[in-house]
Amino acid sequence: MGLTTGHGGGALPVWQSEQAWRAPSAIERGLYEAKARGDWPAYYDLVAHADLYMMQSRAYVDAASGSSRFHPYWNPQTQTMCLAVYTAGMLPEPLPDPVYNGYTLGWFAQVWEPHDPPYLVVNPGSPCEGVLPAGPEGRQLWQRHYDAVESHGLARDTIHTLEQGGPLTGQVAFGLAAGAHIAVANGRFWNSIAYHGCGYSDEKRTLERWWGVTTREQWQDSQRRLLAADMVSGVWEFVLQLRRGMALDFAGPVEVGHWRRTAENVVRRRAEAAADPRLTPDGVTQGSPVSSSELEGQVAGVHRLIGRITRYEARFRADGLLPEDGYVRSVEAWDYGRASGMARWGLGARLCTPAEAQTAVVHAGRLVHANYRSWEDFSAAYVLGRCLHFDEEEFGEWYETVLATHRVLTTAPASPWRTLPWA
Fold first, then answer.
1. Most buried among 65, 170, 181, 215, by the most CB within 10 A?
2. Residue 189 φ/ψ region, left for φ over 0, alpha for ψ in the -120 to 50 degree band, beta for the rest
3. Which helix (H) or strand (E) holds 283?
4. Which is nearest to 368 in space by CA: 382, 357, 355?
5. Are 253 and 247 in contact (CB under 8 A)?
């Protein structure tokens, strides 16, 4: 990003010359171009549209949940105290402290008080810096621009790339691309390994809400389980692996009725084997017989699951997720894609280090490459796992949203699935 000295302890960045500077993303490029042509209404619109990140003391945020504190700095240009905010592409590598929370220009317009600094400075010290007067008229201008913008933050289901500060090639980029379903759907840079997400507080809340993760140890356990594909249902994998073996044995498509009968036979044989006595180092151990009702329930459940999978795959073929004769061999992709996401979420919530996050991302990418044949193959498996987990065969929001993301990732010229080679 052209940064030559860090933000350690809240210090402001020092940037290289404007001639050597490259905008980290389309956000900062738009700000720079608007500033260069003197189009301040457009500059304000871009600021009003963007997520604005403000430095915070981690100890304060953790102790005063939901509260924010201004940390002004002396600006030699204005000869006054100012408040610094940063757009997403300008954020530094996450440190344990300080942290950055996300806000909007409208929020600043509402909470600013007369004793607060006279200027809000966007990306201070950079070629796209903007010094926004914070007096009553200035704040009214902030609010008007904020109200006039139809949406705020990066658009969802759009490819957003860090052109500086994020890997574009190599193993880290590949691992991040394995989590692109999530990044693209949520309107995040797909290749941001120095991840801040929505900001420290929001990342913490999201991890707790969706995963029950609030500690480093819980994050480590979740990350380990995802990389081991331990969260994917064993029953899902059983029926898919069974069909995969049958397809290899018969060198062709497997008829659904044959798949169901074979699965039922395996379930019944396993139940019989479980009931038989076993010889162990401690002697003969009595088996664990399965009741007739329990066994019939298992058989019925496997039949229903096979029906669900075949109906999803038929819809996938109709929607272009699978080729005409394609099928899903394993849904471990569902865990691998989320493992890539979990690495970044853990970093955003400061539950891991940047090095740990990068190691997990690379590991996820290697698993994806080892177990799937292409991005399309991986994506169909990921989508099936998501649907089996959430959708209940409604083909509603859980399916439609991930289908839209799949289509963007497989067709957009800037997509990592188009720019990163699989081999």
1. 181
2. beta
3. strand 283-285
4. 382
5. yes
Cβ atoms of 214 and 208 within 8 Å: the answer is yes
Closest CA to 419 of 186, 190, 192, 181: 190
Contact by Cβ (8 Å): 178, 368: yes
Q: How do beta strands 3-5 and 14-15 pair?
A: antiparallel
Q: Residue written as tokens 């200035």?
A: 138
Radius of gyration of the chain (CA): 26
What backbone phi and psi angles, to 5 degrees, belong to 137? -65, -40
Contact 81, 124 (CB under 8 A): no
How would you write the pLDDT of the chain (423 residues) with one tens digit per residue? Answer: 222 223 333 445 545 455 678 999 999 999 999 999 999 999 999 999 999 999 999 999 999 878 899 999 999 999 999 999 999 999 999 999 999 999 999 999 999 999 999 999 999 999 999 999 999 999 999 999 999 999 899 999 999 999 999 999 999 999 999 999 999 999 999 999 999 999 999 999 999 999 999 999 999 999 999 999 999 999 999 999 999 999 888 777 889 999 999 999 999 888 887 655 555 566 546 556 667 888 889 999 999 999 999 999 999 999 999 999 999 999 999 999 999 999 999 999 999 999 999 999 999 999 999 999 999 999 999 999 999 999 877 888 899 999 999 999 999 999 999 999 997
End-to-end CA distance of the chain: 30
25-61 burial, b at 16+ Cβ within 10 Å, e below that, comes to: bbbbbbbbebbeeeeeebbbbbbbbbbbbbbbeeeeb
Indicate the DSSP class of residue 189. Answer: B
Q: Find the DSSP H helices in 251-353.
A: 256-275, 292-319, 333-348
Q: How far apart are CA 400 and CA 377, in angstroms?
A: 18
- Name the amino acid, one letter, at 190: W
227: helix, strand or coil: helix
CA distance 116 to 82: 9
Residue tagged 């005063």 (tokens): 64
